[in-house]
Amino acid sequence: MDFGCSEVKVWKEALSAYQSRIQTLSLTKNKPNLISLDEFYCNQLPSILRQRNPNPFLTTSELSSLMQWKLTRGKWRPRLLDFVSSLDDAVVKSASEKAFQSLPDVSEAVAELTVLKGVGPATASAVLAAFSPHLTPFMSDEAMEAALGNSKDYSLKQYLKFVDKLQMKAKELSSESDSFTPSDVERALWSYAVGKSSSPQSNQDPKTKPIKSSKRKRKN
């Protein structure tokens, strides 16, 4: 599935396969916690954040679980988990509260979060995506590779380009009957890439061009 593909059906199929990809990855890559971590990140955390009105915030424990999800779904880097797990709760609460209040200014929101040790733009994007999936997608390697052709640049500048591309794609795919968020686009791209790498033949869509690069390093 090429990023330029405009067939809504193809994108919906990739997105609908997301959960099965998570389950397959947890089994084939020996990541038994991935299913529960993904449930926390995709369903529980957004609900928790929405309930904290009028000033939503994140706790150190929640940030630690989010980091576990990010590293388990991508490349495991234990030092990052150690860094965020040792952060003072008041500091995490303050930084996340300021970041959420900064939206829709994505640049400012990322800047507020990256003052935290162990939190770069990629982790900041995961925090923001949990709070505002309609605005800010997670900066996954697979989606970065598909949208920008590069999954090695984790700068704020690159993330802002990524946000623009996925917002435009979500708008393109949405209609009265179908609604896509930038986060939906990211998960569809991730799902397709993971499915293709695990079973190349069954995931080759004859209607779309294949993603050119098959070498996709998960380096979050």
UniProtKB/TrEMBL annotation:
Q: Where do the segments described as Disordered lie?
A: 194-220
Q: Provide ranges: composition bias, Polar residues.
A: 196-205
> Compositional bias (Basic residues) at which positions?
209-220
For this entry, the protein name equals HhH-GPD domain-containing protein
* Annotated source species: Vigna angularis var. angularis
Q: What is the lineage of its organism?
A: Eukaryota, Viridiplantae, Streptophyta, Embryophyta, Tracheophyta
Question: What gene name is given for the protein in this entry?
Answer: Vigan.03G259300
